[in-house]
Design the sequence.
């Protein structure tokens, strides 16, 4: 009898214990953490962070990566080196992220580099075109870079201008370049100078303080360009410089044959101002590409559905590409272990909404450089149209840049020049 009671007691205990374990919640796997550094007050950072969030949402909707959800942690660098350094430090030491992504401005990137080297996390960086960054990252096998370097994009854009000279008969013997005084602008001018000299074109330049960093008066630079008699005027700065440069150019009556902006991204409302008509710019992507590229259209449609808004800079699809390249590499590696992840990233072959297939190859200095195709674009009737290269073109060039008192008659494209 005693044995029977003992047996029944053990069975009941096992049953209750079993119920306890069944009822206890199963601890979910820790999410994979991706840390992003972006300038959130800038249009590039706004488009970039939204596009990264869109990519992460799509990944998590398909059960995440390695059976785990993905968590994106975005930090604001405010376009400043010290802020980028502090953001990187927090992402690594406090948030314990598994991988670092993002980046826009060269100056901010330079500020983050010491921390990148200190921690040695895998970094897949979308921005920072200055060749100084490339030199600083020599020998760092964990560093992967998506954006073309200043000397690469400068050479391609020069090729584009030479082809447009043949097709449209544009004049470009005297060029004036206004550039923000940081690493991005000064690096752009330094890279452009030998290209112009090799082509037999005269180039003058002057630095300015960007509105993104407390500046905003460009009258001295614009008057210098006007007095120089520039056939082409190029400015290299940030989105906050775009509207005041155009307003001040109109104020002093400066309208060269080619008026070219070179910011990483345009302000959201720039497409709405009539001041934008016939302004040319260097870029990598426009929504207009959706006509010819299905991945570009899919990205734009998904962005618009999610945010009830349009992406305005190429850093949108580039940031989306950033996350998807990382996701595909983690899937290939089947682990977050550093060496395996580096090897998986080296096998990247991603068909991007940028209109390019991204792979990593060795550049002049670093081991892992991808390459998007730089394009020459022009604002036409509030829309960013691709002018060059020819196979991606969505419109013909409007030339010359219309005088301020004749802008109501300025919508006609340039006539075809002699070949």
Sequence:
């Amino acid at each position: 009898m005693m044995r029977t009671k003992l047996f029944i007691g053990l069975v009941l205990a096992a049953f209750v214990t079993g119920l306890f374990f069944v009822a206890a919640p199963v601890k979910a796997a820790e999410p994979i953490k991706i840390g992003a550094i972006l300038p959130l007050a800038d249009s590039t950072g706004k488009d970039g962070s939204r596009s990264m969030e869109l990519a992460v949402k799509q990944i998590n909707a398909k059960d995440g990566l390695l059976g785990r959800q993905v968590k994106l942690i975005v930090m604001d660098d405010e376009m400043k080196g010290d802020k980028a350094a502090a953001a990187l430090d927090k992402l690594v030491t406090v948030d314990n992220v598994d991988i670092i992504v993002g980046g826009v401005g060269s100056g901010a990137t330079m500020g983050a580099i010491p921390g990148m080297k200190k921690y040695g996390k895998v970094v897949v960086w979308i921005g920072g075109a200055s060749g100084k960054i490339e030199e600083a990252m020599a020998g760092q096998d964990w560093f992967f870079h998506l954006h073309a370097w200043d000397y690469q994009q400068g050479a391609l854009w020069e090729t584009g201008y030479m082809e447009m000279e043949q097709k449209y008969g544009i004049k470009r013997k005297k060029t004036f370049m206004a550039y923000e005084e940081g690493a991005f602008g000064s690096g752009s001018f330094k890279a452009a100078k030998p290209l112009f000299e090799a082509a037999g074109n005269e180039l003058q330049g002057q630095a300015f303080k960007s509105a993104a960093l407390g500046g905003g008066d460009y009258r001295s630079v614009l008057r210098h360009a006007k007095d120089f008699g520039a056939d082409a005027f190029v400015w290299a700065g940030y989105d906050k410089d775009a509207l005041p440069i155009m307003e001040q150019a109109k104020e002093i009556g400066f309208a060269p044959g080619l008026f070219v902006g070179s910011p990483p991204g345009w302000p959201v409302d720039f497409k709405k101002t009539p001041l934008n008509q016939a302004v040319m710019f260097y870029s990598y992507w426009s929504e207009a590409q959706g006509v010819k590229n299905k991945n570009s259209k899919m990205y734009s449609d998904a962005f618009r559905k999610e945010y009830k808004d349009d992406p305005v800079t190429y850093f949108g699809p580039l940031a989306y590409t950033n996350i998807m390249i990382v996701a595909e590499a983690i899937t290939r590696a089947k682990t977050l272990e550093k060496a395996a992840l580096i090897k998986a990233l080296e096998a990247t072959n991603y068909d991007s909404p940028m209109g390019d297939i991204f792979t990593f190859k060795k550049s002049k200095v670093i081991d892992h450089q991808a390459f998007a195709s730089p394009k020459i674009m022009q604002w036409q009737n509030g829309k960013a149209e691709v002018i060059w290269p020819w196979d991606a073109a969505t419109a013909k060039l409007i030339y010359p840049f219309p005088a301020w008192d004749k802008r109501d008659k300025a919508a006609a494209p340039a006539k075809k020049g002699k070949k």
In short: Residues 1-27 have pLDDT under 50 and may be disordered. The two ends are 110 Å apart (CA to CA). Residues 141 and 355 are 27 Å apart (CA to CA).
